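Put briefly, the fold is written as integer tokens. One such record reads:
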Amino acid sequence: MYTKFFNLKEKPFNLVPNPNYLYASARHQNALSFLEYGLSEKIGFVMLTGEVGIGKTTLIRHLLNKVETDMDVGVVFNTNVVSNDLIYLILNEFEVPYEDGISKARALDIFYRFLIEKYAAGRNILLIIDEAQNLSHEALEEIRMLSNLQTDDDLLIQIMIVGQPNLREIIENPKLEQFAQRISVSYHLAAMDNKETQAYIAHRISKAGGDPCLFPSDVVEKVYEVSGGIPRTINLLCDAMLVYAYADDKQAISLDLLNQVVEDKGGLGIFTKERQKAASPVSGIESVPADDGLLNRVVSLERRMDRMAEAVDKELSRVSAKAERSADELIGQLKTRLEQEQARYKKLAQKYMKLCDEKTAQ
């Protein structure tokens, strides 16, 4: 739509992970080095973590484009499964035939024979588990057991687990001590800083055949502040700015344009640091002892209010194209509910503070 308007060969800020657009920041280079080392040395377990939208999938796809031709790769994306179903997903991913209804023990035996055949043929097997933070402890143990499939001298399968930061916390659980011990190489992919954000935007514009200076420095700095250096959010912002500029027939990207995008898209996947701070508990509540039951009710109610406020934002966007009367009626109902919750919260907070004062007086 806007590509010709800005002399671009293609859209530079697509949300679909594209290894051809990978910006190799220092962090990404380090991550690649760790992952490549793990694969080349045939280390059993490799782990990559990072925030949502940080570019883990893009990095993995870039890595897979570089793997040796003697490696067969299977990727499991659906991790919201019970542990008993995991082995069947893996068999399907590697296109290993099996009969429906077989036991898990039988499925494991079939997979072991598949690995032996590949090993005899000089093939290496890599299993990638994406969104691994969704797996239960039992499912993670199932994955660990797969690493026991080996010959006297060599591993029959390499396993890479990819997930969000809380994956590290999950693995630190004492129940998963044996799993944690199997991880030989791990790397956490952090968000980009201001300079990297500027280079990232210029890189993607250049890759699409455009002017790398299309986004002025003041706009880029604001993009960094809003996105926190998360690539997916940067893509959302930059793509929306190009759409808005095209719609307004403006060749120049400005702060006013960015502010308009943030205002319009704030409830649709773009979260600023300011919004995150606003969603955190107030300082007075943070300092109260955690064993007070009333505190839990206050925090719970506050979270409900945050969710309802976000729901109002989304509903406003969704109904904007509908008739004025029905939109006003629906939004009015949501606002009334939100005001009721705010009133309940105010009363509960007053009661809570009074209780704190009484405790202090004692």
